[in-house]
Amino acid sequence: MRPAIAHGLDHVPGHALLGRRGFLVGAAALLAIRPLGATGIGSGPGADPLVEGWLATAGMSDGFAAVGLDGAFSATTEAETATRLHGIEASPTGPLAVAVGRRPGQIALVFDRRRGGLVATLAPGAGRVFSGHGRFTADGRLFLTNEIERPQEGTHAMGRGVVAVRSVDGGFVIVSEWPSGGDGPHDLMQSGAALVVANGGIEPNTPEARDAEVTGSGISLLDPASGAVRGEGRLSGDLASLSLRHLARDGTGGTVVAAQDLLKDGEARPLLFRIAADGTLSPFDAPDAEWRALRGYVGSVAYDPSGRHVACASPRGNRVAVWRADGRFLGSVPLADGCALAAGPEAGTFVAASGYGEVILVSASPEGVGIAARRTGGPRFDNHMVRIG
């Protein structure tokens, strides 16, 4: 039996669904407010919350863990460790999932999301650390991790990036290695015909970032079979302080990347970009006040199930912001220390979670954005979450 984590579920009444601009979000305009366990993912008779639902990383009372969430956002511990975990990914073809650590980035946990329990512990390649993210290939046969070469002591650099290709059937042994195309790679994922790598360069809010104003960040588009570079994307000079870090895809070739800013000068810089097939980066639109409200930091990004909406979570800005996929800003909702974010159960919805143990269902429509349901009392959710099923 996996240990369950106690929660309290609040269903937000219709009169409470007010967006930041004061509009009323009614059940007809958004999502009919209902008990999440009634029709949500993983809530049907005999449904297994680890076959359908969400996976996340979290801090526990005596360490850290990968956790599973069912359709009512009830959390169950999957695999525990003494080391902080970051990104999490489920195999598309089997029960395995992997949670990758970062800072120090010395381990990744392979666990069985259906039965629970640790299957294996992975280490990065010699002389490297994990960046915090890894992805299965579509056939589930390979697992790819971004890894960073340790720079020499005293240097203000993040280290060159390596994509380590691991055989799942071979026990996640590294079978190939490719240059990531830049320094300090963070996220990666295959979208369309390319393996997209976000090379973050100098990471904001780290010792390496001291006195730095340019990150050297960029996007690399790699051949998913050979690792050959097929394209790249760079930001304009006025955005050189941004570190491109987190990726999301819509399933039809659309890809976005979210950024963090080295500078704390109060300037309104876009933190969300569309990635074209050749790597060209185009910023999403938002009022300057909304960009400033994110406080230069987006911790995660996701598409909704329809691919028509994109959301970003900012734990520093204490909010989740939502756009249409064409770049038009729709609005935002508050979530203190909220970072974990994934597609919700229906079109126009997202699930977000915070370091205070709160989970919210965010719903978007042409009229705006609101909170459709909320659950409290969970673990200290960390940076990332992924939908399964």
Task: Give a written overview of the molecule.
- The protein has helices at residues 36-39, 288-293, and strands at 4-5, 8-11, 53-60, 63-69, 75-81, 85-90, 96-101, 108-112, 118-122, 128-136, 142-149, 160-167, 173-183, 185-191, 194-199, 218-222, 229-233, 242-249, 255-261, 272-275, 281-283, 300-303, 309-314, 319-324, 329-334, 338-343, 349-354, 359-365, 368-376, 380-388.
- It is mostly beta strands.
- The strands form 7 sheets. Strands 1-5-4-3-30 form a 5-stranded antiparallel beta sheet, with no helix packed on it.
- 52% of the residues are buried.
- From the spread of the alpha carbons, the general shape counts as globular
Major sheet strand order: 1-5-4-3-30
Look at the structure and give the mean pLDDT. 88
Q: Write the CATH homologous superfamily of the domain at 124-283.
A: YVTN repeat-like/Quinoprotein amine dehydrogenase
**How many β-strand runs?**
30
- Give the helix/strand class: mainly beta
**End-to-end distance, in Å?**
21 Å
Strand content: over 45%
The biggest beta sheet is recorded as:
5 strands, antiparallel
**What name does the CATH topology of the domain at 124-283 carry?**
Methylamine Dehydrogenase, Chain H
Write the layout of secondary structure elements.
Layout: E1 4-5, E2 8-11, H1 36-39, E3 53-60, E4 63-69, E5 75-81, E6 85-90, E7 96-101, E8 108-112, E9 118-122, E10 128-136, E11 142-149, E12 160-167, E13 173-183, E14 185-191, E15 194-199, E16 218-222, E17 229-233, E18 242-249, E19 255-261, E20 272-275, E21 281-283, H2 288-293, E22 300-303, E23 309-314, E24 319-324, E25 329-334, E26 338-343, E27 349-354, E28 359-365, E29 368-376, E30 380-388
Antiparallel strand pairs: 1-5, 2-29, 3-4, 3-30, 4-5, 6-7, 7-8, 8-9, 10-11, 11-12, 12-13, 14-15, 15-16, 16-17, 18-19, 19-20, 20-21, 22-23, 23-24, 24-25, 26-27, 27-28, 28-29
